[in-house]
């Protein structure tokens, strides 16, 4: 491969026999046969390219620094380690697209090796030798390196060619830049400039790689009479092969010399061009993606950012309201489309693609924050329909299901960005009237059903035993019931079943009755931070005044906020989802299956249990214990498909006529041959999917059930007189 | 320019409520308090006028009640009111809607607004008289059930629309200052986020006594009221019974019931 940036030196000795060569004479031909003026010109251009690069880096860093402050937690070393592990393993790029991951790995390692090779030459030629007289770039070291670089070049080219094939011929929907939140004709509808940039990047790298080989071959032909060059040629197998070809078609030493001279400049100049372009083009993802991975917050969607008490303004109104890390996130996006593909709102045709929210804001930041002075506040407004702005319909389409954050290979954190923008919409009252009504109701009654607080524990009245009031008597397990399981008639039945299971297992449990309020998980994800603070505060006070060992909940939404967000408000409680508690009760023999079920089932991972809190295993182990045959849907576990209820969307009906996420999901389940039960373990899922079962015409084909109900079926209730008192 | 908006904190029944010991009202323990729904609309109308005006306009809310009312007043401040006045004296307890109107009129006299808005009625008492009575006491022109309003602050008159029976609309011009009672649906009330309510805590709520508005104890309470609530109760449930059996049995039973009802002999 040709690395023109580095000068050669006089070759003093001829190498006769490679296998026994211990001479240090053999080395890389660099500036040989160049005039002093040419060498000076090249250095000049090299410095110019580096200067442009540095300026670009400065502009980018200045842009990020124009964002709000943020102090990162955690050690830098651990962050660096996590980043290197993700980058070197390509783990995140492999996910859900092995082929792209493999090709990127070839490009990455090919490029890195070639870069390291060039850097090593610079190290010796421009630094170590002139300053300290140290030389190592010769002899065996050189030959082995030369072989490695030749192989690296092959890897790079193979990766690039596959990526070209992928972009040009595979027609992957996720690589289609058409936006669901714009219509054809809008200036930023499908952004052909992105496509051009993608191709230019691929071609640029490919040309650099290919000309490197041709240059190497031309050099071999040119210097074929020099034994140190010619006899070691097979250490650069690709170059040597090309050189043989050139000689066959009649290229002589002189022709080779000319070709080498010309190509040297061409190859050198486009390589310098690439360096200069890095900070201004998608090439910068080399740095921004790595940096983004380094500042990754593993709880980005699970634990939303607090609004400091002292802060006047709530939510993101201007681009500069995002913190530097979020601005960096915008630049890290590589448009890979994994979030676009995973988003349930996008899948059903809602005007939202997480990718496009990020790209819009990136374009906005690029247009406003890269010049010398920051424009006036009015020009920084990110809400609206102009290019770069994000429309409220887009923001309200989000179900905060975290599918985008979870799959992003470069740690872009979409959900907090969207919620922070929603906070501003909530401040302005720019939301569906039904949502306004719901928030007012929750404020007034502490639940989204508008029911009296006093009725919160009413579902327990029909049980044959009293459920302890945890405010009045100490309990081992405090059950945080949540709104849906307390007030929704269908879910109340599940609550009654769960209470009887706990009772039969001999668990000393209680509930907070009207001391409990809506946990606030979804209120917070709507963006009503003030109301969330009120709800979280009320629940934390209620929990603290009760005496218990641990908290259990049947509601994954409550589970998430109590587990991950209450600690920020001074409420640290040990909480688990019921699936892990019940699993333990089985393991300890407190519950025993007396009638194994033989159902063919599939399991829907609730977003807040699965993706948010990685509770994938307990429900599956329970299903196996019950004797059910579990058939997974294609989209399961981390890739589970949101029922559409998250982020407060359960309070706002989806537009009539369009497919709902839950219906989309039902169709997926219906494709499982012989499916009998669609198992859920979240009250909102039960509501959403029982509805979708009917509206997709699958009623009668299979049923939707709470896992709790299946457990009950496998442990037929003992008669009342057998129940423990 | 100044618009005065009279607001009320109303009570809604909780589940399984009980009647107060004296039998004249619901036990306050079973009441959920909130801003009267109509007042949300009249406040929004005032704030919209303020926002559309070139001149500075002050929107003031006024309410009569104990410090429990501050929560609702704060919500009004969060939604865009500039000032809040609350009038209270123990003697006000037991006032009918006209006595309350007397207090509101006294505040209007003190503040001299260009317009006084009130809701058509309160959702808990539904007398629909407070606003109009205040107009009478002030001697101002008034109109009830306004469903659309065109008013520029400082103008000598305003034009509003009312909805009549049979789908008729009535457009009326009225001299200012006037009292208008505002109907639901005239606008879309904004949402007051909890943050904005919290921040509104720093805006002042002025608490006035009867003396501050030049009234005496005799003007309010039962002394100043010509009507009083005698009792509040839940009527006995009407009875319904399902007649079972085949058609002939049902017909026979029905005939029997009719005869019983008429007092005829079997």
Q: What does this protein look like?
A:
The complex is a heterodimer of chains A (725) and B (266). Chain A has four domains: 24-62 and 78-292, Fumarate Reductase Cytochrome B subunit, CATH 1.20.950; 306-430, Fumarate Reductase Iron-sulfur Protein, Chain B, domain 2; 448-582, Rossmann fold; 600-714, Rossmann fold (3-Layer(aba) Sandwich), CATH 3.40.50. Helix content of chain A is 52%, strand content 4%. Chain A has helices spanning 36-65, 76-89, 91-94, 98-132, 139-169, 192-222, 227-230, 237-248, 253-277, 285-294, 324-332, 338-342, 344-347, 354-369, 392-397, 403-407, 414-428, 433-445, 483-487, 489-504, 521-526, 529-545, 556-565, 578-587, 617-626, 661-670, 683-695, 707-714, and strands at 468-469, 477-480, 509-511, 550-553, 575-577, 600-603, 629-630, 677-680, 703-706. A five-stranded parallel sheet of chain A has the order 1-3-2-4-5. Chain A has a four-stranded parallel sheet with strand order 7-6-8-9, with helices on both faces. The N and C termini of chain A lie far apart (83 Å). With 266 residues, chain B is α/β, with parallel strands linked by helices. Chain B is built from six helices and eleven strands. In chain B, the strands form two sheets. Chain B has a nine-stranded mixed sheet, with helices on both faces. In chain B, strands 2-3 form a two-stranded antiparallel ribbon. In chain B, helix 3 crosses helix 4 (130-138). In chain B, 40% of the residues are buried. The A-B interface holds A 307, 312, 314, 426-427, 429, 431, 433, 436, 439-440, 443-445, 451-455, 528-531, 533-534 and B 14-16, 32, 34, 188, 190-191, 193-199.
């Amino acid at each position: 491969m040709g690395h023109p940036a580095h000068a050669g030196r006089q070759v003093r000795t001829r190498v006769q026999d490679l296998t026994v060569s211990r001479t240090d004479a053999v080395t890389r031909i660099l500036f040989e046969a160049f005039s002093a003026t040419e060498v000076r010109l090249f250095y000049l251009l090299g410095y110019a390219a580096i200067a442009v690069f540095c300026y670009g880096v400065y502009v980018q860093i200045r842009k990020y620094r124009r964002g709000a402050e943020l102090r990162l937690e955690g050690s830098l070393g651990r962050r660096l380690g996590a980043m290197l592990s993700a980058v070197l393993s390509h783990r995140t790029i492999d996910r859900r697209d092995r082929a792209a991951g493999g090709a990127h790995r070839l490009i990455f390692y090919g490029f890195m090796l070639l870069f390291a090779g060039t850097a090593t030459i610079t190290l010796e030629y421009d630094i170590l030798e002139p300053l300290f007289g140290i030389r190592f770039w010769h002899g065996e070291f050189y030959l082995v390196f030369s072989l490695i670089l030749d192989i690296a070049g092959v890897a790079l080219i193979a990766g690039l060619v596959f990526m070209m094939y992928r972009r040009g011929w595979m027609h992957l929907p996720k690589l289609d830049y058409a936006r669901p939140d714009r219509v054809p004709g809008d200036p930023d509808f499908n952004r052909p400039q992105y496509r051009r940039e993608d191709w230019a990047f691929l071609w640029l790298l490919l040309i650099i790689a290919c000309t490197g080989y041709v240059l190497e071959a031309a050099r071999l032909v040119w210097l074929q009479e020099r034994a140190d060059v010619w006899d070691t040629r097979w250490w650069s197998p690709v170059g040597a092969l090309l050189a043989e070809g050139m000689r066959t078609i009649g290229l002589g030493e002189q022709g080779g010399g000319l070709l080498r001279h010309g190509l040297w400049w061409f190859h050198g100049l486009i390589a310098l061009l690439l360096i200069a372009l890095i900070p201004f083009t998608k090439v910068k993802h080399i740095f921004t993606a790595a940096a983004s991975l380094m500042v990754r917050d593993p709880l980005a969607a699970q634990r939303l950012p607090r609004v400091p008490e002292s802060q006047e303004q709530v939510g993101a109104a201007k681009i500069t309201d995002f913190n530097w890390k979020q601005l960096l996130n915008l630049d890290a996006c590589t448009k890979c489309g994994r979030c676009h593909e995973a988003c349930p709102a996008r899948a059903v045709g809602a005007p939202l693609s997480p990718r496009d929210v990020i790209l819009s804001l990136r374009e906005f930041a690029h247009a406003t924050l890269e010049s010398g002075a920051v424009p006036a506040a009015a020009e920084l407004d990110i809400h609206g329909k102009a290019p770069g702005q994000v429309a409220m319909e887009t923001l309200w389409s989000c179900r905060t299901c975290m599918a985008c954050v979870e799959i992003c290979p470069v740690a872009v954190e979409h959900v907090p960005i969207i919620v922070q923008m929603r906070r501003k919409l909530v401040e302005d009252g720019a939301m569906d009237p039904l949502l306004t009504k719901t928030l007012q109701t929750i404020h007034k009654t502490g639940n989204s059903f508008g029911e009296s607080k006093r009725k919160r524990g009413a579902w327990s009245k029909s049980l044959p035993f009293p459920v302890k009031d945890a405010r009045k008597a100490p309990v081992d397990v405090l059950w945080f019931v949540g709104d849906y399981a307390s007030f929704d008639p269908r879910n109340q039945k599940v609550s009654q079943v769960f209470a009887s299971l706990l009772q039969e297992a001999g668990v000393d449990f209680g509930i907070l009755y009207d001391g409990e309020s809506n946990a606030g998980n979804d209120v917070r994800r709507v963006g009503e931070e003030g109301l969330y603070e009120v709800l979280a505060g009320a629940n934390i006070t209620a929990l603290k005044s009760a005496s218990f060992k641990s908290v259990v909940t049947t509601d994954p939404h409550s589970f998430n906020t109590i587990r991950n967000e209450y600690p920020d408000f001074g409420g640290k409680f040990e909480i688990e989802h019921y699936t892990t508690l019940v699993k333990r009760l089985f393991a300890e023999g407190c519950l025993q299956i007396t009638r194994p079920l033989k159902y063919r089932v599939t399991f829907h991972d609730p977003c807040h249990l699965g993706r948010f809190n990685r509770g994938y295993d307990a429900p599956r182990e329970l299903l196996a214990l019950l004797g059910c045959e579990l058939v997974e849907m294609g989209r399961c576990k981390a890739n589970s498909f949101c029922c559409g209820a998250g982020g407060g969307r359960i309070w706002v009906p989806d537009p009539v006529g369009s497919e709902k996420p839950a219906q989309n999901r039902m169709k997926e389940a219906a494709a499982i041959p012989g499916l009998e039960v669609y198992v859920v373990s979240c009250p909102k899922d039960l509501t959403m999917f029982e509805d979708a079962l009917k509206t997709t015409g699958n009623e009668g084909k299979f049923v939707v059930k709470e896992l709790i109900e299946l457990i009950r079926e496998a442990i037929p209730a003992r008669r009342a007189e057998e129940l423990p008192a | 320019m100044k618009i005065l908006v009279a607001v009320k904190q109303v009570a809604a029944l909780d589940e399984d409520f009980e009647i107060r010991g004296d039998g004249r009202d619901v036990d306050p323990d079973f009441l959920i308090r909130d801003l009267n729904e109509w007042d949300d609309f009249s406040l929004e109308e005032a704030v919209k006028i303020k926002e559309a005006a070139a001149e500075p306009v002050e929107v003031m809310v006024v309410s009569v009640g104990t410090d429990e009312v501050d929560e609702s007043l704060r919500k009004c401040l969060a939604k865009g009111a500039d000032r809040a006045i609350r009038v209270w004296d123990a003697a006000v307890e037991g006032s009918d809607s006209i006595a309350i109107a007397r207090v509101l009129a006294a505040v209007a006299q003190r503040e001299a607004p260009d317009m006084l808005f009130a809701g058509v009625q309160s959702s808990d008492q539904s007398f629909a008289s407070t606003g109009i009575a205040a107009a009478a006491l002030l001697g101002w022109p008034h109109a009830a059930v306004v469903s659309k309003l065109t008013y520029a602050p400082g103008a000598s008159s305003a034009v509003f629309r009312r909805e009549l029976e049979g789908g008729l609309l009535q457009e009326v011009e009225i001299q200012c200052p006037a009292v208008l009672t505002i109907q639901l649906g005239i606008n879309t009330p904004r949402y007051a986020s909890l943050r904005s309510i919290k921040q509104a805590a720093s805006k002042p709520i002025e608490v006035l006594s009867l003396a501050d508005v030049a009234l005496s104890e005799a003007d309010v309470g039962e002394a100043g009221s010509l009507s009083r609530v005698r009792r509040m109760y839940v009527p006995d449930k009407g009875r319904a019974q399902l007649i079972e059996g085949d058609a002939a049995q049902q017909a026979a039973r029905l005939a029997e019931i009719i005869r019983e009802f008429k007092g005829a002999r079997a």
